[in-house]
Amino acid sequence: MNLPPGRHLSPDMYTPDYDPRHANDSPFSFDEEFDLDGRTPPFRTCETPCAYGSPFQNRRLPLLGLSDWDPNFRDDEDDPTCIHYDIEWKLQLKKGRLSKLVEITEENLTLAPGAYWDKFLSVELAASVKDKLPEPRYEPDETTVVVSVEKRSERNMRKRFDGLVVDWKTIEDKLRGWAPLFREGNKLRIYISFVYKEVIQPAAATTRSRGRGATGRQLIARDQLLADQEELTGSRPVWKEVYDLLHCTGVPCINSQFYCWRNPENKKHYKLDTNILSMLVDFAEEGNLLRTHDDVPENIRQVIYKHEEESSERRRLKRKRSDSSSPININVTCPGHPGHPGQHQGEIFNESNPESQGEAQGSVASRQRPIDLVIPMRRNQALERYHEWQQDQVDSPRWQQNIRCAYEITREACLDLRHVHTEVGAEFYTDKGVQLGVALSFINDVPRWIEEALG
After folding, report:
1. Among 413, 395, 404, which Cα is nearest to 433's?
2. pLDDT digit string, tens, across residues 14-63
3. How far apart are CA 59 and CA 182, in angstroms?
4. Of the four listed, 89, 105, 308, 442, which is most buried by Cβ atoms within 10 Å?
5. How far apart are alpha carbons 230 and 198 in whole angstroms?
6. How many helices and strands (H and E) does the chain possess?
7. Chain CA centroid to CA 362, Å
8. Burial level of 201, CB count in 10 A (0-12/13-18/19+)?
9. 444: which DSSP letter?
10. Is there a contact between 212 and 91 (Cβ–Cβ < 8 Å)?
11. Rounded CA gap, 279 and 12, in Å?
12. How many angstroms separate the Cα of 82 from the Cα of each of 61, 72, 177?
């Protein structure tokens, strides 16, 4: 029997009292020669801690099962008696893109991964799900596991499992295979991602909870649209969660049915525009927590404060101009009836300003619209917000389709709302298939939208 020089092997090493967790306490001595005992070692009983292998079989360290594991055991880092590994696990929510809700690292574990899941990790995951994913109910979608070792020549093992059903034996076999590398000082790690998704509620159940009025029908149409989107993507859009959080009920805020951020300190309501809402949606989609108004980050709060100051200044200037402006008389003459001298039918002019009368001569102003439109957001975002507002005014699928078509035509032409209201005629839309009534509303409702939605 060829044995390494300089070790004494005691006959007691094969007794039921041997425990790899207390290898440093075992009766080994490291003198310069062996002292061999020819007695037959005692027969191992089922109590011997060998369920996950022996440290002397192929010089591979074992993984400890629950029956072998002692929570108070502290192994020797320089001469370990079992495999050690780290777990980095995170809870993620699939809503369009993955959002990270929890990320936790457990270091220097000795309990086998399957046993650790049964005793600890499954309980901790359930508590995190209950805390981070309140109603409506959520369910596990998939679990991804990556097993790695620090040695560069070794490739990581990646596995995906449905729900929470993980093949822990495969994971443990990989750790056992890397036991010699661990003995050499290479760290072992397991990365686990538990991905949850929201349980999609049937659209019919939502429909029954809505009222019968126009607003109720609009909400039903919106819910159906969201249900269709969720069915296609398999998840609820993040923007919907953000908009629901910031939707203002109007008590006591005057911005009823719009979107506000409520300052947690002074409870003041700050009206939000599409630009700020988009910033908050991006913030949430990046995996950041946005469950309450207190979760709004400081950089976005500064944008909100600045927007409020600019809005207040615009309102002040508007009141100042209104107080100092001269009255404008609007004279409308019917076809075939004489009107104001030098005035054409339907002209609008300022009697107090002779120059305006001269400019009006020979012109037809029946389609003239105001051009001083102040829209405090990016042009493409204003168009998107205007489209949403137009959709909220109707509940007919035919009207909604025509409004969508008008929006697509405008976006493809890179027209902003100022162009739409002051330069575009109805034929621009009707020639492309939009019904006349929707075309006229899309063109003429811009000032009303600015007044109602932006104040």
Report:
1. 404
2. 444 444 444 444 444 444 444 445 555 544 444 444 444 444 444 578 88
3. 11
4. 442
5. 10
6. 16, 7
7. 58
8. middle
9. H
10. no
11. 69
12. 5, 15, 13
Q: Which amino acid is at 180?
A: P
Residues 165, 143: Cα–Cα separation, whole Å: 8
CB-CB contact of 159 with 171 (8 Å): yes
* pLDDT tier, 101 (very low <50, low <70, confident <90, very high otherwise): confident
Q: Which residue has the tokens 């495969």?
A: 170
Nearest alpha carbon to residue 441 among 390, 407, 396: 390
Length of the chain: 455
Q: Which residue shows structure tokens 């009025």?
A: 213
Summarize pLDDT for 403-430 with one digit per residue, the tens: 999 999 999 899 989 889 888 889 999 9
| DSSP state string for 197-222 | EEPPPPHHHHHHTS-SSHHHHHHHHH
CA distance 97 to 430: 38
The pLDDT value given to residue 165: 93
Half-sphere exposure in the Cβ direction for 266 (13 Å, CA): 3
Q: How many Å apart are CA 359 and CA 357, to the nearest integer? A: 5
Sequence-distant (6+) residues with CB within 8 A of 450 are 373, 374, 375
Query: Where residue 77 falls among pLDDT bands split at 50, 70, 90?
Result: confident
Dist. CA 89–CA 113, nearest whole Å: 12
Cis link prior to 136 (omega < 30° from 0)? yes
* Rg from Cα positions in the chain: 36
